[in-house]
Design goal:
Blueprint lengths: L5 H13 L11 H7 L19 H12 L7 H13 L3 H13 L6 H13 L3 H13 L6 H13 L3 H14 L6 H13 L3 H13 L6 H13 L3 H13 L6 H13 L3 H13 L6 H13 L3 H13 L6 H13 L3 H13 L6 H13 L3 H10 L9 H13 L3 H13 L6 H13 L3 H13 L6 H13 L3 H9 L10 H13 L3 H13 L6 H13 L3 H13 L6 H11 L6 H10 L1
Helix pairs in contact: 1-7, 3-4, 4-5, 4-6, 5-6, 6-7, 6-8, 8-9, 8-10, 9-10, 10-11, 10-12, 11-12, 12-13, 12-14, 13-14, 14-15, 14-16, 16-17, 16-18, 17-18, 18-19, 18-20, 19-20, 20-21, 20-22, 21-22, 22-23, 22-24, 23-24, 24-25, 24-26, 25-26, 26-27, 26-28, 27-28, 28-29, 28-30, 29-30, 30-31, ...
Length: about 600
């Protein structure tokens, strides 16, 4: 029984008022559904007979029949209609039926309210989900572990992991209920989704202290996240800890580990894991093979990838869209577009295997090879296949048009994607801005940037750097400097590339003192200059006939472990041909020979 005093209820309610897709693909809502089914009002435990519903039409018909019965059936029977609709993901329908139940005087129970909260969470309406808690208190019911776990899951779905963690602490500290393995695993999934593996591991350590034993899903979530972040040693250590606790690994565990080691090119370790899983009677599935195919292709080992596909077929495992898309991408990376198209055509012959991702991969391959018309042909055929191009597809093709100098077509496609309901992202805007700057259309680029700043989509450092470089290349150094100086107030921190481009612009404008001031400023702000930065300002001094200062910076560059690039060395050789040569420059060059 949940213990919650009146005071703690008010405290918890106040919190709720105040608080008004990395992550594992195999960890969905099943645990939450299972958690709901542990409640006392679970309709499957009712003695009432009922007709099973398997689709929306059937559910609506049964619901309508029940609503006209007199006396009305119990709330348990109505819950039996709502539950399948939740599984079918018809959340608005469930909420509509729930409203009808309330209007008909049917008093909801724990299970009904938990279903309602779950639906609001799935619809990204956490404000409404939290407001349902008031109905618990009004009806004399107490939120239980299922309720609170669902709310945590809702926050995680919206990437509001800090809010999820805050709610979790409120549960534990307030003693409202005892979190179970699903509660812990849900928050761990949230931490992993935002790449906070440290917090996930710390929470894992706290489970036993709270009398809760982690299960295979808990471990798999963290192992998968560590593998994706290339922290393979940590993933293998956690794997050993899991086995030491007596929890047997499953196929999901091994797939996560294999993907992690393959991403690092550790083929021997991948082979060892494959043998180990086979010895335990766990055999590779289509996901395992697809991981291997993708890893081989990314390493340019397309022949080995094709061998894996052949092994799959021999074992009776049909390659799926992911497998073939990875193989196609491998050919694209090698510039083998004819072979990539052959794989695409094979997917077409297999029915509904071609999807938006596979089309985007082929379009990208053609764009990289400057075969824009072929890329555009694949794009135009997508609606004929029942496919809707997404933001990635549009952005890829827009980039292809810009790089081919076909800016008008790129701009037209940019407008078209918005008309079709596909919202451009930061990368899309950045690509268009790059195209405008490269074609000396700076006024339009600035206008485009201001439009972006006025939208919900905020430019990042890459976006601003593109425009700053465009202005510098056009000789508009003051405008570039004004834009640069406005970055920090906007919460955007210049990176080494931004500084280097700005320093280059100042050097070209003969503003060497300002250029060196910026070199010193970047270090003060925690952005260390690299070899490119030093070579840029050194060339600036040489081109402005300040050999002495250039030589001093060459010495500084050398002390920091950087060396002159081809362009700088060419200028230095030119200096050496003169009658008088700076002795420091001679000494530096002698050390380098």
């Amino acid at each position: 029984m949940v213990k919650m005093t009146h005071k703690s209820v008010l405290s918890f309610s106040s919190y709720c008022s105040y608080s008004s897709r990395r992550g594992m693909p195999f960890f969905h809502s099943t645990p939450l559904v299972a958690l709901f089914h542990s409640q006392s009002s679970n309709p499957s435990r009712s003695g009432e007979t009922h007709r099973e519903v398997s689709n929306v039409e059937d559910a609506l018909k049964v619901f309508d029949e029940m609503l006209h019965r007199r006396p009305l059936p119990s709330v348990v029977r109505f819950n039996q209609v709502l539950a399948p609709l939740v599984k079918l993901k018809h959340y608005p329908t469930v909420l509509s039926l729930n409203s009808q139940m309330l209007l008909s005087g049917i008093r909801p129970d724990h299970y009904t309210l938990n279903i309602t909260i779950n639906c609001y969470c799935r619809l990204n309406r956490m404000d409404y989900a939290l407001s349902v808690l008031a109905h618990f208190f009004k009806l004399g019911l107490q939120p239980d572990v299922a309720t609170l776990t669902t709310l945590i899951h809702g926050f995680v779905l919206q990437n509001r992991v800090a809010d999820a963690a805050r709610l979790f602490r409120k549960i534990v500290v307030g003693g409202h209920c005892q979190p179970n393995v699903i509660t812990f695993s849900t928050l761990i999934k949230g931490f992993c989704a935002i790449g906070n593996n440290t917090a996930a591991i710390q929470l894992l350590g706290k489970m036993e202290a709270n009398g809760c034993q982690p299960n295979i899903i808990t471990f798999n979530t963290i192992i998968d996240s560590l593998g994706k972040d290339t922290l393979v040693d940590e993933a293998l250590n956690l794997f050993s800890e899991m086995v030491g606790r007596g929890i047997a690994p499953d196929l999901v565990t091994y797939n996560s580990l294999i993907q992690g080691v393959c991403n690092l090119g550790q083929w021997k370790e991948a082979t060892r894991l494959l043998y180990e899983m086979a010895n335990q009677g766990i055999f590779p599935d289509v996901f395992t093979f697809s991981i291997l195919v993708d890893a081989f292709c990314k390493d340019g080992m397309v022949v080995q990838a094709k061998n894996v596909v052949q092994i799959m077929i021999q074992r009776g495992i049909e390659p799926n869209s992911v497998t073939y898309s990875s193989l196609m991408d491998g050919h694209c990376l090698r510039g083998e577009m004819n072979k990539a198209k052959q794989v695409f055509d094979l997917m077409v012959t297999k029915g509904s295997m071609v999807n938006v991702q596979s089309c985007s991969i082929l379009i990208n391959g053609y764009c990289k090879q400057k075969k824009i018309d072929k890329a555009y042909k694949i794009f135009k055929e997508m609606p004929l296949r029942g496919l809707v191009p997404n933001t990635v597809t549009y952005t890829t093709l827009i980039d292809g048009f810009c790089k081919a100098g076909r800016l008008q077509e790129a701009k037209k496609l940019f407008s078209e994607m918005q008309d079709c309901g596909q919202l451009p992202d930061v990368q899309t805007y950045s690509i268009i801005l790059d195209g405008l700057c490269n074609n000396q259309q700076l006024s339009e680029a600035i206008e485009f940037l201001r439009e972006m700043e006025g939208s919900k989509l905020k430019p990042n450092v890459v976006t601003y750097t593109i425009v700053i470089e465009g202005l510098c290349n056009a000789g508009e150094v003051q405008s570039a400097k004004d834009l640069f100086c406005g970055l920090s107030p906007k919460g955007v921190q210049p990176d080494v590339r931004t500084y280097t481009i700005m320093i280059s612009g100042l050097c070209k404008g003969g503003l060497l003192v300002e250029a060196e001031e910026m070199l010193r400023e970047m270090e003060q702000k925690g952005c260390s200059p690299d070899g490119c930065t030093y070579n840029t300002i050194i060339r600036g001094y040489i081109n402005n006939n300040d050999t002495s200062r250039a030589t001093s910076l060459i010495e500084e560059m050398s002390e920091r472990g950087f060396s002159g690039d081809a362009s700088t060395m060419e200028l230095i050789v030119d200096l050496l041909s003169k009658d008088t040569v700076d002795p420091v420059l001679l000494a530096w060059l002698k050390d380098k020979v």
